[in-house]
Specification:
10 helices, 35% helix, 9-stranded mixed beta sheet
Length: 279
């Protein structure tokens, strides 16, 4: 797979780079970022994919999360995919911030006109994964997944839908029950159609109820998050995990909102959570 380097930057002894490739799954060019830690000079290292939230791009996490310093210490590669196809030519794809461009929801759409290009699940779990493992010094047997908000939904559901693909999983303020919130209902109606049974296959809470299992999970949630009550529903996911015996550490934090200051505050805990499993 041909890889185009957009930029590379020395960072904490490693390299933060941004890249583009012609995606067969998406049918369009797709961008992503990779932080390669200094330990990769001696051989392949564990790799951690971060899925960003609504409106974000491949560089949001790299710029805002403050993760590279500790990733360099721990010897973790960080991969940050874009959140959707871009320049799709689909009418209305840029009209809303919570649907279309910047809002791919990490699934493969089945409804026209989205089905042609919005194949984020296949891109992240298959094509991009294979590209990273082929082009960067990453260990195929040590792959973790985490994300924020829409990307937290993606991390939970992709790991549940692809057992064994990811050895460690965590999330910041995930959309934990998308079939029961406005963001999820809007996205799933558009991408998957009206059949709610199809929606359940992309809802972490429903997947756990149906028998899906994950490595021990870490989730952080701010209690001053404007989206907590209407969109995120971590309590529903927590109850499903408790009922199913799924190991979950769900931490609730007074005063923290939905943004990257919250993510920065607990990034070290998440990186150490993954490093402990992936080391």
């Amino acid at each position: 797979m041909a890889l185009e380097t957009l930029s590379e930057h020395r960072c904490f002894g490693g390299v933060q780079g941004f890249y583009r490739h012609a995606s067969n799954e998406i049918g369009l060019p797709m961008k992503f970022g990779v932080f390669v830690p200094p330990q990769a000079a001696q051989g392949p290292v564990p790799v951690l994919f971060f899925l960003a939230g609504l409106t974000c791009t491949e560089d949001t996490f790299a710029i805002k999360a403050g993760a590279q310093r500790l990733a360099a210490e721990l010897g973790l590669m960080l991969v940050t995919p874009d959140t959707s196809p871009r320049d799709t030519g689909i009418d209305g794809a840029s009209e809303a911030w919570d649907f279309g461009h910047g809002a791919g929801f990490y699934l493969d759409a089945t409804e026209a006109p989205w089905a042609r290009h919005f194949r984020m699940e296949s891109w992240v779990t298959q094509e991009l994964r294979a590209l990273v493992l082929a082009q960067f010094p990453a260990r195929a047997d040590r792959v973790g997944l985490f994300g924020h908000s829409m990307g937290g939904h993606g991390a939970l559901t992709l790991a549940l839908r692809h057992p064994g693909l990811y050895q460690s999983v965590s999330a910041f303020a995930p959309i934990a029950a998308p079939t029961q919130c406005p963001w999820g209902e809007k996205a799933f109606t558009g991408y998957l159609g009206a059949d709610r049974a199809a929606w359940a296959a992309h809802d972490a809470t429903e997947l756990v109820k149906a028998g899906g299992r994950l490595p021990p999970l870490l989730i952080d949630q701010g209690l001053a998050d404007n989206f907590l009550a209407n969109q995120l529903h971590p309590h529903l996911f927590e109850a499903a995990c408790e009922q199913a015996g799924q190991a979950l550490t769900l931490r609730r934090h007074e005063g923290y909102d939905h943004g990257y200051y919250f993510i920065q505050s607990f990034m070290e805990d998440h990186l150490r959570h993954h490093a402990q499993t992936l080391a």
